[in-house]
Amino acid sequence: NELLLPLDAICILTLIPKWMPTVSRWPDFFKTVSEGGYNMVHLAPVSTRGASNSPYSIYDQLSLSPDLFDSRHMTEAQREAALKQMLGFVHEEYGILSVTDVVWNHTAHNSAWLQYHPEAGYNMKTSPHLRPAYELDEALLQMSEDMEKVGLTAAITTEADLIAAMGYFKSVVVPRLKLWEFYVIDVKKVEKQFREALSARAPKLDYPQFATAGGLNLRERALLLQKVALGPAVLGERFGKNLDINVVMAFMMALKDQRAIVANNDDDLVKELIGIVDEINLDFYKESDSDIAAIVENVASRAKYLRVDDHGPKLGPVSRSDPFVDTYFTRLPENEITKGLHAEELALANNGWIWNADPLLNFASPQSKAYLRREVIAWGDCVKLRYGNGPKDNPWLWEHQRAYTEKMARLFHGFRIDNCHSTPIHVAAYLLDAARLINPNLYVFAELFTGSEDKDLTFVKQLGINSLIREAMNAWDPHELSRLVHRHGGVPVGSLTIPPEYFPLDMLGHPLDSSFYSPVRKDETIVVNVCGSSPHALFMDCTHDNETPHQKRTAEDTLSTAALVAMSHCAVGSVKGYDEVVPYLLNVVTETRKYRLPDSYEGIIPAKSILMNLHTKMAREGYTEIHVHQENDYISVHRVHPITHDGYLLIARCAFWKTSDLIAHSPIVLLNQSVHVIESAGLRVQAPQTESQRSAHPDDHRESRKTLGAITGLPCFLDFSAMLTTLANAEQVYSDGQMKTVITVDPKHFLPGSIVVYRTWMNGSGLDLDNSGALLFDDNVDLLPPGLNDAIKLLRSEDVNVILYRSGPEEQDIIGEGLYDVPGFGSLVYCGLQGFLSAFLPIARTNNLGHPICANIRLGPWMLDYVTGRLEKYSALFPRIKPLKNWLEERFYLIKRLPSSFVPKYFFQSIYVVYQAIRALCIGRTAAAASRLLKSRSHLLKESSLSILTESMVMTKYQLVGRTASTGLYPPEASAEKRSLSSFAAGLPHFATRHMRCWGRDIFISLRGLLLLTGDLETAKNHILAFGANVKHGLIPNLLDQGIRPRYNARDAAWWWLWSVQQYCKSAPEGLAFLNEKVPRRFPPIKRYWPDSSFLQRSGDDLETGDNYVEPSDPAAYQTVSTVAQICHEILERHARGIRFREWNAGPALDHAMSEAGFDIACWTGLFEANGLPDTALRGTGIVGGGNRFNCGTWMDKMGDSEKAGTKGLPATPRDGADVEIVGLVKAALRWVNEILESDQAQVWPWPAVVVRGDDGKDTTWTYKSWNDSLQKSFEKFFYIPSDPAQDGSYFFRDVKLINKRGIYKDTVGSSLSYADLQLRPNFCVAMVVAPELFDAEHARGALEVVKKHLHGPLGMRTLDPSDWAYRGVYDNANDSDDPSVAHGYNYHQGPEWLWLTGFFLRAYLHFNLDAAGARPEKRDHVVHWVQESLLQFKTQLANVEKNPFVGLPELTNKDGEECHHSCPTQAWSAAALVEVVRDLVHEACKP
Description:
This protein has an 8-stranded parallel beta barrel with strand order 1-2-5-10-11-12-14-15, surrounded by 4 helices. A hairpin with a 5-residue loop joins strand 36 and strand 37 (1259-1263). The chain starts with 10 loop residues before the first strand and ends with a helix. It is α+β, with helices and mostly antiparallel strands. Helix 16 (557-566) packs parallel to helix 17 (605-621), helix 33 (1220-1237) runs antiparallel to helix 34 (1264-1279) and helix 38 packs antiparallel against helix 39 (1420-1439). It is 35% helix and 13% strand. It is built from 40 helices and 44 strands.
């Protein structure tokens, strides 16, 4: 009794209490129930029954039926106590839970309380809309009484009798009722009112709707007048529809004034009006005719069934007491109690049901005409209850039913909601709430006839229904029965829905029992991705409403159906009498016999007992998988444990019809499995089925149907054994080193109605470590599978890249192989394990074993061999992966020996656990290096949300950092050590190999987020030094090309490199000592920067002595050695002095689309005019700029290349001039240098100034402090666009008329395209992060709000204001149109939304709203929560592997977050920038 009963373990038996012995004699009765294997009983209502004696027609809900007890003189309290005590005894003694029906939708027609509370039902006072239905019902009663008076026979037994009666009904009864009067407008009344209005000459009213009424035809006029003048109908009244006579008057006068009618006098007007009203009435007459036709059809159909049809009850002579058809209304008696009631309160609508009705529509409401149209199959002994919308509408009824419900909740463990589909949901919800206050663990099930699973779910969700009844007797043949068993039987064998001990819930999202959700460790957070499911089933072999197998099929089918139901993985049940093979449906109204205690060998009881106990065992122990196979009239069901693979196999032969055919089942082959007989049984019934045998019908109320005696089953014999079987033969066969069990059926002995059940288990798979079935895993779920830790513990970052990732081009580049291609699905996105997981996870979430990937795995070992084969090839270069390759090979050897249905499951399980172990290893190392990045205890943050997001973004590093053969950080001539260094891909798969892999700008934007914050200082340092070695012209390469032919066309890359140097010095233990690191130079610098004792001592630039291209094999390559500090100073000083050069190898070979002028590179600094400033106003500002109209030196680097559209050689966004983010990076560098110079480590930077050329062309010094101060002073003036135009004079503008948005910062200053300076773009957010001191805090907050409103998208930042003339939000690089704005993706940066900028925007938003001057402390929580909420979009993006199989953050999206198919699906800087946001967010939240 302390053991919880899983829902799937329920074995319920329905009992009708009035057929049971009295309560005191229940123990012996329930002992037999327990011995039958049942653990729950469903008792029909136990309350006092009404006049019909049906337990579902309750006379008094608050009293227990006296006939259930030995003494009829017990008080109600004594009866309740006795029943409660007995149910408690049954629970304690036999482990049987009890549930009962609750009947909320109706009460017995003779319930005494109806006379006191007629408002509880639907009568003519509470529901006047039912009056026409009541008048029709009265007419039918009168016809029933007058049958012989009008020449009809009362004993209707033939079709001819029925036709005659219906003829009278249709031609006399219906016309006499004049039902049409309830539909139409009273034309005579309208005529009278109109004449009176004409006589009164009332003032003319003006209705604009009638201004053109004269141009309408008669039909249109009628519709217009109906729309304006027809008021709400008075329900239940003849001629209840009325026209507003004032509106009618205005309408007719309008027609007259418009000369649309000829009206010489009032009679003419009246005649015209009558014609219009008749036209209005036409639709109402049609509605009336349609309803009357339905009335006639439904009355005829019901009468035919009740009195003529062979399958109907064939009721006796028609009379008022036994009317022609069911009566729809109960008439309350006229007595002392009811004499004070109005006559309209005395007739109450009976309850019933309707074929295919909408269960959400109350068929007694004004919105339904079901009672009038005679669509209700009425229960004459039940009055439908009227609750209204809430307790205020009917206080007594709600309180009465609440008391009834609470009483049942005190007695029983659960409820079956009777007539649930017709019970108003709000009523059931209210009453269940009351019950659950009494019994919080109430088990609730119901039978729904909604005809729609969606509507089923509406009831299930709103009422908290635990199970829905499903009926095996609804199956019409073995195929349909097998479908039902499959639907309710569990998940397929080999399913991917594995308990969370083996699959982490936050990835798979598989809903399991809540006991699995407890964390392994106290500090562990369990994240569950909840999946929907179909409503839980209570699968009944037969219900108390079903005809029996003897009636619907053959009696022999009793056993086979029971066995098939018992093998289902859901709650199961039966009805008392089924196991005893009672031949007919027992009528709950008329049956008077009692149950008897059955013998233990009676009917199918011995076999059923084993089946019920087996059902409970399988549910408790987790046999959740099932395979169902139907062949002829055989159905086999194999229930399997998902971990141990032990199972139980049922072979059943159905007996839907009598047959002696010797039909056999194909041999059943079980690979590497043994079997043992659990039970074998066949049912032989002695009484044959005859045509004359049929049930007592529920509509049959004749006394002759009652039978005295006890309820007894058919005489039958059960051939039964719990050890042996002659029905089938199981033989073990050995071939190809494997054992098979082959089961063959003997059709001579395996007769219809027979079953055999085997226990099955796996042999020698090698998967289970012991008998507990722990499979590949150690018993301790907190540990890795045996041997896995040793196989992965030495892995380095580059090894992880090989094992988990590698795009197709990378794989081809190293080992000459490609992506795994799945027929019918396509290629995976990665060659490593992530490629398989990305494809597999959606399959696992839906358990889609029919997916082409699962089919491919089942068909052959190719996928398993691919995984280990590629690791073998990589082992020569990456020897640390060899142990893991061996570990996987061992597991795959065992998996290949399994039945093919298990292979997808265990292949996925193996690679998944490896992936999770490696992922945990990587995250663990990251967390150790940057603990505050991933953990926070702040109340402001949801730790699990940020942790999961950050961990996923951190894994991007392992996607993108790895080795390739075609490129690296150093040329082939370099040492083997340098050639073996991993390189950082900008994104995959577009930037995977060769010269397109390593981009200076991308790497150094990403370096802090993906390398420094994750603790990978070594990789960060390698990239800083490698790019620093390639400094030339004072720039670092845009494309490194492993130092062979690097390209120097990026003006921002050098500043991002400097930014990374700063961040490395702040992060690495060596600190500023890193600046002394020696760097061999790929290209000899100009003499001024030769790193000897004369460093910086030479005047001039001596361009002829340096900055020239030399091949990597040239002796001059890598001969010059500088320190990191010297390179940093060189970059700063060369920019201060001005940079001008033409790209080496300029021409089509270098860039096919660029014009000649585009190869000319220039950078200037606003110090002296000699620097080539675009505007003299920039002199002395310290602002850095450069470029020209024909090149694009910043990250917005789209070069036009469409000759058709005329864009070839024209950058879409040249951004020449001073770019705001570069100015911010310059300021950050100057700030850092000055901090060093002012520190006690100034010796690492011995240069207090840069040497520049003055206006006279001579060298002069400019201190770093002066440069920094000049830039600080000038920034707001040159870049801010004030909100108030009156302030424009305080700022620098070339043309204020071009301003589109105010309160923002310019994108550039001094662009050759004047309007471009003023366009709203998100680039100033970068400057706000790297150099926040440049910005006036109030201006910055305002500008960020503008960005938030206009540029912040779901994932990325709009690269241009949508209101800008140039905005084009959808990027399509394949566009070959002649539209210059979009051809060949010309709009790459003209609106599409880039993710990396979101990181900088959010970081700026945090800083200026929380830390900057003037920040409001009261907004702190709001700001932090808003930023975190913004991050959730990225979590969703990363988690959705079906749409995002690369499991990274994309380069960009199209407008409003729409997927861009031309974007790189995983991009370094997108993830890196967001990692930095998390770091700032956690840092902020951790502040006291």
